[in-house]
Amino acid sequence: MANEKVDVLIIGSGASGAAVAWSLAETRMRILSLEQGDWVRSTDFPSNGRDWEARRAGGDFDILPNRRGRDTDYPVNDDNSIMKVANFNGVGGGTVIYTAHWPRLHPSDFKVKSLDGVADDWPIDYWALEKFYEENDRMMGVSGLAGDPGVPPRHPPMPPIPMGKTGTHYARAMNRLGWHWWPSDTSIATTDYEGRGKCINLGHCTPGCAQGAKASTDITYWPLALRAGNVELRTRARVREITTDEHGMASGAIYYDKDGKEQFQPAEMVIVACNGVGTPRLLLNSASGKFPNGLANSSGLVGRNLMMHPWPIVSGYVAETMDGGRGPITCLWSKEFYETDKARGFVRGYTLQFGRGTGPANQAMVGVSAGHLPWGKDHHKVYRELLDHRVNIGVACDDLPEEHNRVTLDPELKDSNGIPAPRIDYTIGENTRAMMEHGIARAEEILRAAGATRLYCSREVLNYPGHLLGTARMGRDPERSVVNEWGRSHDVKNLFIVDGSVFVTGGGVNPTSSIQAIALYIADQIKQRLANLFD
Amino acid sequence: MTETHLSASERQRLCDLAGLMIPAEPALGMPAASDPLILADIERSIGRDLPAVHEALKSYRPGQEINDWYAGAGVPGQTLGRLVLAAYYRDDRVLVALGHEARAPFPKGYVVEQGDWSLLAPVKQRTAFWRRDR
């Protein structure tokens, strides 16, 4: 049976897809979102059970799809990448498993060519997004403290998460060094907020929040969007390709339903919201006679310029008892080294993110992995020196676009529906390497000032934040970009991209708040241009 | 009995290895990882890691120093190590001996103190230093 044509077909229900669905709902257009995964119930989250740490490390809530291996996941060949792909395939997407750390891009991130002579400027600036950042902060429910001298003004609707013992310890060290620090903005409710309970410090937020204090779009945007009455969300619907008509316009999408049956969903316009790996994979899988190199790919840039945020973590142990695995993961940030200082030997910069510890099992795993915790007779003695004494600082490096860092289709690997899987080729650039080393040295300096010993940082096994950016970049020049400055494909005039793949540069921050601000901005542009949207 | 597809000899080897990896420490009230309850939990957890566990168990030579074995056991050894640690550090007796509560995080949660907000005073004195773009 043929599916009824919709006005707007949104592929993906994560950070950006949900925001766009909610924003466009007021137009009264018929909107359908196709999602390959399921709804996740709060009772499914690991923190309901005693095995919560195991389910996060190599289990069904691991952040890496290749380790998680759910039937709703697709495999990724990332053998040729030092960074591994992290994501979540389900309603809410990556917001289900993210840390909820909530910085914004800085104004300078949008003008790296003008200011620093590298990469490209964005076709939009921070100020075009500012009101959407604010709107998104209210929708997701953000906690933080206004007045940070390191970032432009913002107005978090809830007070910040606690500094705790760990944050206080870092703060003293940072004050001794005279370096900037500030309590992190997080999309974690610190008061009851729009039907969500406040944070009760369950611990690591990445395997989902059973309390519902962490904002994921399945509990923020989606309930409101679906309540509008003209929005449908169809789960277990894995899209194979976007189809086009004889005029080169998008006509809908072919997907596999929950029974594995092929379906065609016609649509007046298509919005892609699958983020920096899923989106290029879909566009490349949508190649046709009219678009032999993939859809929207006349520039040849679909899949190129992948940015993944190299993110070394420097850890150590202090004599005092810290928060351990209790409370939101990241408590403070520092912008001391965010903006360019060419005397450092690189351009752009990084955010330092100050983490709490981990749970008992995870503490043992990281201790063994770092070579601090032996097996055998000394195990117990050493373990007691580590548990609840861990401090760690993440170096969130800006990642500049390089065309050889890319997503292509793997010639052999396929998902469970037989759809070609993505292959990742990614290396860390010279500028970013220099930035990483600078950041590692500063983090070590801070940890020493905090009295930490047993300092450790791996350059080979990096943190994999799941920030997948840049593979369908925005710009005014159709030869140098995939979508225009308001998210519409240069090649296909009823095809929009709203996720992290439109980023021109990566910035040195977690990108979700910016992804959603951009999605709301593009939705607003669509609403303003409805009369001549496809001209 | 949980079906793990370990042979009797592999079970014995797992027991031996687990006991070497984390021996008992009676003075601290800590059982060994070869404790029957913990061992059963490890076995229950193997699941899709079974091939790696087979390989890890095969790679151990009796009498080998445990840290030497682990250093050369690669991904299979790391997989087995992860399973042992995950099961061990959720055992009630272990958690209580460590001064932790033996329970799931939800629904009770934990208390995290606010910390010393007065430390922000010098940071608040700084003038804005984010880079202007216009």
Which features characterize this protein?
heterodimer; A: alpha/beta; FAD/NAD(P)-binding domain; six-stranded antiparallel sheet; B: 134 residues; mainly alpha; 7 helices; 49% helix; 0% strand
Describe this structure in words.
With 535 residues, chain A is an alpha/beta fold. Chain A is built from 12 helices and 16 strands. By secondary structure, chain B is mainly α. Chain B has one domain (8-103). Chain B has helices at residues 8-21, 36-45, 50-59, 66-72, 74-88, 92-97, 121-124. In chain B, helix 3 packs across helix 5 and helix 4 crosses helix 5 (74-88). The longest helix of chain B has 15 residues, at 74-88. Chains A and B meet through helix 2, helix 6, strand 4, helix 9 and helix 10 of A and helix 4, helix 5 and helix 7 of B.
Task: Work out the strand percent of chain B.
Answer: under 5%
Largest interface: A-B, 67 and 58 residues
Percentage of helical residues of chain A? 10-25%
Poorly predicted ranges of chain A (pLDDT <50, ≥5 residues)?
none
Poorly predicted tracts of residues of chain B: none
Approximate strand percentage of chain A: 15-25%
For the residues shown, what is the average pLDDT of chain A?
A: 97
CATH homologous superfamily caption of the domain at 6-154 and 185-308 and 401-427 and 465-532 in chain A: FAD/NAD(P)-binding domain
**How many domains, in number, for the residues of chain B?**
1
- Count of alpha/pi helices of chain A: 12
CATH architecture heading of the domain at 6-154 and 185-308 and 401-427 and 465-532 in chain A: 3-Layer(bba) Sandwich
Share of helix of chain B, binned: 40-55%
Class of secondary structure makeup of chain B: mainly alpha
